[in-house]
Amino acid sequence: MTLDPFRNPGIPLDLERVAAIRVNxxxxxxxxxxxxxxxxxxxxxxxxxxxxxxxxxxxxxxxGDDTPGNVRRLCAKARRPVRADLLxxxxxxHLGIRVGAVCVYHAYVAEAADALAGSGIPVAAVSTGFxxxxxxxAERIREIQAxxxxxxxEIDVVITRAHVLxxxxxxxxxxxxxxxxxxxxxxxxxxxxxxxxxTLGNVAKASWVAMMAGADFIKTSTxxxxxNATLPVGLxxxxxxxxxxxxxGFAVGFKPAGGIRKAKQCLDWLxxxxxxxxxxxxxxxxxxxxxxxxxxxxxxxxxxxxxxxxSADQRHPMV
Length: 319
What we know:
By secondary structure, the protein is of the alpha/beta class. Helix content is 47%, strand content 10%. It starts with 14 loop residues before the first helix and ends in a 12-residue tail after the last helix. 48% of the residues are buried.
């Protein structure tokens, strides 16, 4: 059987496999800390890694003050995320650098899809009662379906955290499976809200259940929790992705989100992907950053690489 490495169909829920998962927190924290000193990316190599990071960004606006104009300006930035003069100076003008996706609320999916038409950049919609995920199930399903109809190619859903905290794995599996079916051809990114799951063991088990249910990506956070993406959590999730691929043959993507605002942070995450999952997870098909302010700092670092000088933040506006 030929397996599609970019789409995980899911497998039947295996409660014994989930129950057997154990996480050594101290070992995870030591490994995560060691990653920061294992690789030093400087000069031209750093610029190249930062350009790669841009292509993996889900450029995001999820504010209560979003407007159609803001969304359209964000989409224009998504099409041309780096100033043309900087790309020319770095010898990267021919690379066609663009972001991985634009992520918005359902109300702006159609606006974003229209603004991105012909670019090849997908629209991702947060859904299922984001960020709490506590609206009635029927409403969450309808929200997914409406976003797909409006033009979303990717759906970022939130799980019911109580299913994890109470160990109701069948309920979590059924929930994510229903979300997957509602998505149809749209890719499903499952937000675990790891800062609210209590333990790294719960993070690992929730990752497995989400993948068994057919998640195309597993994602750390909504960005609205008190604790969002951290390297120890990312390490745990990456190792579940690796184990799932080894056991099933299906590759699942990973998306850290929340609090990733500096270029140095995105390099740390790329190093984690390369060390734990390999080069296949250094592309937007399997790795994304959920970020709003990250791109500005990356562009600022690229200007330093091109000119030797740091510029003010306002020289690199998002919208």
